[in-house]
Amino acid sequence: MQRLKHGSVTLESVLLLISFSCFVFKGLADYIPPAKLDGFVYENRALNYDTILIEAFYDPVCPDSRDSWPPLKKALSYYGDRVSLVVHLLPLPYHDNAFVASRALHIANGLNRSATFPLLEWFFKHQEKYYGAKTHYLSRAAIVDQIAKSVTEVVGSSDYHSIKSRFNDTKTDLQTRVSFKYAASRGVYGTPFFYVNGFLLPDTGSAVDYNTWRKVIDPLIGRKSVKNEDSLHFFL
Ligand SMILES: *[C@@H]1O[C@H](CO)[C@@H](O)[C@H](O)[C@H]1NC(C)=O
Ligand SMILES: *[C@@H]1O[C@H](CO)[C@@H](O)[C@H](O)[C@H]1NC(C)=O
């Protein structure tokens, strides 16, 4: 009797566990895999087998991510459409307000795709307002308020209230979770991390300067194909 009871309890807990796992997996299945690939494509440059693909994992409130952006942007302008960039977001738990800042980028991207990178640059410029001692006594609502105002300015076409309501919309929450989970699934544990054609660049977690980008990308492209004043040096 004792044994039977024990057995039935075990069966019950197994059933409970199974139904619980189904619940958990159903919850996940609603957004993983996502309907759309994660990431923001820079300047809508084509992603195909003829281009070099750089993937940057950024946290909008991370100082090292901020410092790595100008040299990467310069390299992207140098290489033109030979190099594409996809930015993935990894809101780091030890950066205050990283999740809400990342969510703001998803919101902006959903409203006006061209506003995504201007807003990322806006965060890089003003990120110090959003972490550390400065935000210690600010409520989450006050931060969302401030960020929503700035998003409104950068995005242009939408009004403050519709932007603010998107911070309450589960869709933008899920998009930001997908970004986090995508980064985790790629083994990214800090920012900035850079992948080139699918392979991780060494020196992860620190800014890569312009010369390093040139050293990495030039050999991949073949110097002759670079249509730029630099190619003159090659022929002289
Ligand atoms: C989208 O955002 C860009 C960059 O901020 C801005 O120049 C453009 O006017 C915006 N488009 C609309 C339709 O508001
Ligand atoms: C967001 O949700 C909170 C709590 O549910 C609510 O108090 C607030 O008014 C909502 N804000 C907007 C802008 O919809």
CATH architectural category = 3-Layer(aba) Sandwich
Shape: globular
Contiguous helical run count: 9
| Series of secondary-structure elements, N-terminal to C-terminal | HEEHEHHHHHEEHH
- Structural class of the secondary structure composition? alpha+beta
Secondary structure: number of strands: 5
CATH class: Alpha Beta
What is CATH's topology name? Glutaredoxin
Q: Mean of residue pLDDT?
A: 85
Strand order of the largest sheet: 1-3-2-4-5
Distance between the termini: 94 Å
Assign the CATH superfamily.
Answer: Glutaredoxin
Could you tell me the strand content as a percent range?
5-15%
Low-confidence stretches: 1-8, 14-18, 20-25, 228-236
Query: Helicity range of the residues?
Result: 40-55%
- Main sheet characteristics: 5 strands, mixed
Compounds present? 2-acetamido-2-deoxy-beta-D-glucopyranose
Summarize the structure.
The chain is of the alpha+beta class.
Can you walk through the features of this model?
It is a single chain. With 236 residues, the protein is α+β, with helices and mostly antiparallel strands. The chain is built from nine helices and five strands, in the order H-E-E-H-E-H-H-H-H-H-E-E-H-H. It has helices at residues 2-29, 63-79, 98-111, 116-126, 140-155, 160-166, 170-185, 210-221, 229-235, and strands spanning 40-41, 52-58, 83-89, 193-196, 199-200. Helix 3 packs antiparallel against helix 4 (116-126), helix 3 packs parallel to helix 5 and helix 3 (98-111) packs across helix 7 (170-185). The site of one 2-acetamido-2-deoxy-beta-D-glucopyranose has 8 residues, from helix 5.
